[in-house]
Amino acid sequence: MSGIAEFNIASNVQTDHEHQVQLGLLQALCTAARENPDAEAVAEVLEQLMAYSEAHFTSEELLMRMKSYDDYEDHLSDHSHMLEVLLEIAADHAAGNSSLVAGKTEQVLAFIGHHIDTRDRRFAEYLRNGM
Question: How many C-beta atoms lie closer than 10 Å to residue 11's C-beta?
Answer without folding.
Answer: 19
